[in-house]
Each structure stands twice: as structure tokens, then as C-alpha cells.
Input
Amino acid sequence: MKNNLIYPELSYKIIGIAFKVFNKLGYGHQEKYFQRAMALEFDKEGIEYEREKEIELLYDNQNIGRYFLDFIVERKILLELKVTPQMKHIHIRKTLEYLNEAKLKLAILIYFTKEGVRYRRIINPKLALD
Output
């Protein structure tokens, strides 16, 4: 089963860092502070990332908009952070949009909730079998 996971080792590192950040900061902070703390931990671990990565939305090769992604980790995983009391379907849908536009196979959506860290691995159905 483990062999079927996309980027399992990097995924576990990212999720572990999220738990570490939450354990140090606790609940009740704005998303930007969790994002900054995650970046500091990525730096400590030597994990390559792009923060607030801008992705253009194209239509007939014309730019019609843009998305700002929280992180692209090791050029492989889209990481989105949310501070919310509960997981919401809209966050999953938006992350799928980002994943398609970024042309990546995997996203991790991390929620910092009152009860702790929750996460979802989201697979890009268009690229998962490549």
C-alpha cells in the first residue's frame, strides 16, 4: 500500500512540520503566521520551497487571472494552509483548481483547528497515473 502513495516521505515530513508548528504556536493565529513558521521549519530541514507562488490562469493562451499558492514544496507538492474550525468542501475544490493549474500530482491541504492539525492529501486525477 505504501508503494502506491505519491511522494510518501516528503508528505510525512511536511505533515510532521505542520504538527511541530502547531505544537509551538497553538491555535488562534492568522494563516500568515503559520505560513511564516512553516517556512522557517522548511529552512531548518533543508526542504526547498516556493512561498506565495503565483500561477497564471490562461484561456486561449491569454492570462485571465492568477492564483497565489501558499507553497510549492520540492517542486512536487502543492501545500495549502487553512486556519478554520472545520474542514470545508470549498477548500478541497479550490485546492484541486490550484493543483490542475500548477500541473502537479499531489496537494496537501493542512487545517490548523482548535482540535489540532487536520490534513488531506489531494491527488490530481489528471496526472495521478503519469
User: Anything to note?
Assistant: The longest helix spans residues 8-25. The domain at 29-123 is CATH 3.90.320.10 (Lambda Exonuclease; Chain A). DSSP finds three helices and five strands in the chain.
